[in-house]
């Protein structure tokens, strides 16, 4: 199996939205997805996010979606919103390829670091991130407002 990664394009959005829905099913939260291809396309065109895709046999099998944020203490940071590999392809190193591409993008764009979240029950993902020497924060509480 040959896997390649590349920067995503607007033409990839329908395929990556399918991965987003697959992740939502995995996280038992499909009913919480209110996004759609049209919104993602508009937001991509407004440069609110960027992404890498992983492909095999010209089919998108993985995604790393990220955007930039700013910390008053640290400066420019890359926030990786999601890294998704389609279920049938997990365990083949595709997540590592996508994660490494995202780390490289953070470094190349002058970021002082990278942030993301992982569900505590997703032990395979937690184990994956531990291999990178990830700092896990037990102090901060995630907060959100939905509109």
From TrEMBL:
Transmembrane stretches, start-end: none
Stretches of the chain forming a coiled coil according to its record: 16-43
Domain N-acetyltransferase span(s) in chain numbering: 3-147
Signal peptide range: none
InterPro entries: Acyl_CoA_acyltransferase, Diverse_Substrate_AcTransf, GNAT_dom
Record keyword Transferase present: yes
Keywords, in A-Z order: Acyltransferase, Coiled coil, Transferase
Record-level Gene Ontology MF annotations: N-acetyltransferase activity
Keyword Acyltransferase: yes
PANTHER family in UniProt: DIAMINE N-ACETYLTRANSFERASE (PTHR10545), GH14572P-RELATED (PTHR10545:SF29)
Family: Belongs to the acetyltransferase family.
The name this protein goes by in its record: GNAT family N-acetyltransferase
């Amino acid at each position: 199996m040959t896997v390649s990664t590349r920067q995503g394009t607007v033409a990839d959005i329908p395929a990556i939205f399918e991965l987003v829905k697959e992740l939502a099913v995995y996280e038992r939260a499909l009913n919480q997805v209110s996004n759609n291809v049209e919104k993602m396309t508009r937001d991509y065109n407004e440069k609110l996010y960027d992404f890498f895709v992983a492909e095999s046999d010209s089919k998108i099998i993985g995604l790393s979606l990220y955007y930039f944020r700013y910390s008053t203490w640290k400066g420019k940071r890359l926030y990786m919103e999601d890294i998704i590999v389609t279920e049938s392809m997990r365990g083949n190193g595709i997540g590592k390829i996508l994660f490494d591409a995202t780390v490289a993008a953070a470094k190349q764009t002058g970021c002082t670091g990278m942030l993301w979240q992982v569900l505590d029950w997703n032990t395979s993902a937690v184990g994956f991130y531990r291999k990178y020497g990830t700092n896990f924060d037990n102090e901060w509480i995630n907060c959100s407002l939905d509109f």
